[in-house]
Amino acid sequence: MKIIIIAGCQRSGTTLMGQMLGAHSQGFLIDEYDSIYQWANAWLNNSKNQFDLLNQSIKKASSKYVDKRHKIKEFNDLSDRFLVLKAPNLTFYANEISLLYDEISVVYPIRDVRAVVASMLQRKQPTMITNQINHFNKSEYVHQNYSADLKKLMDDNTEIHIKATIIWKIKSLLIKQFKVNNLNPLLVKYENLISEPIEVAKIMARHCHIKYETNMNQHHRYMDGKGPGKTKRDRKIDDNSLKKWNAQLNSEQLSEIMEIAQQTMSNFDYDN
């Protein structure tokens, strides 16, 4: 089956990119609100119950659509559609994904660290950061390559904006694992997506071997309700969030964030 995975760091545009690809007339989006990780775990481990769990996720996922896709209730209803998995926590499983027989394309968002950290802090919900730390702690690769960062994440005295910055750094750099495992990830800057949404949508379509459709830039017409991160699915693409971090982070926080993230930002060609 053809599957498109949206990996990368939370708050980097994963929801928007998932919805754009999921709005394609042949696409079907499954995300965190659809119990995606329960199924994904079974999928990666080739468990016997993977199709039962997939059907449960599909039934939940169909409710986000306002077109005929809201009638899709199980795998057999998908026909010749492709799945779009908005699943940033699959970022930790590049090796396992590479062993699957499905036709897989990977889209990997990246976003200015300051905007990501500000967004994480604005939510005032430590659950996401705690969950990410738990994922990092289970990753042998993270233990081997980011032990000092992991130690800071595990320290209760580390300030929350520092933890958020480290999470951004590690999850952004994990794109290397997708490259090493020959998954050919497409790096997409959130800022480019906002400034040139049609051109970037076409780039994503080419990378995923699907035909570009205007649906992709009109996702708000095909979905409603709220997505992960309380994102309104019927919200058009806009640039309202690009520089909000200016008013959300103080000078001391910005200095500490950039001290940690400067090199990684440069690696991804961000001008600071």
Structure description:
The protein has 14 helices and seven strands. The chain has one domain: P-loop containing nucleotide triphosphate hydrolases (Rossmann fold, 3-Layer(aba) Sandwich). Helix 2 runs antiparallel to helix 3, helix 5 (113-123) crosses helix 9 and helix 8 packs antiparallel against helix 9. The longest helix has 17 residues, at 251-267. The strands form two sheets. The chain has a five-stranded parallel β-sheet. It has helices at residues 14-23, 36-44, 50-61, 94-98, 113-123, 127-138, 140-145, 147-154, 160-173, 175-180, 190-195, 197-207, 245-248, 251-267; strands at 2-6, 27-30, 82-86, 103-110, 186-189, 226-227, 231-232. The model has no long low-confidence stretch (mean pLDDT 93). It has 272 residues and is α/β, with parallel strands linked by helices. It starts with a strand and ends in a 5-residue tail after the last helix. 48% of the residues lie in helices and 11% in strands.
Which helices and strands appear, and what pairs or packs with what?
Layout: E1 2-6, H1 14-23, E2 27-30, H2 36-44, H3 50-61, E3 82-86, H4 94-98, E4 103-110, H5 113-123, H6 127-138, H7 140-145, H8 147-154, H9 160-173, H10 175-180, E5 186-189, H11 190-195, H12 197-207, E6 226-227, E7 231-232, H13 245-248, H14 251-267
Parallel strand pairs: 1-3, 1-4, 2-3, 4-5
Antiparallel strand pairs: 6-7
Helix pairs in contact: 2-3, 5-9, 8-9, 9-14
GO molecular function: N-acetylglucosamine 6-O-sulfotransferase activity
Pfam families: Sulfotransfer_3
Protein name: Sulfotransferase domain-containing protein
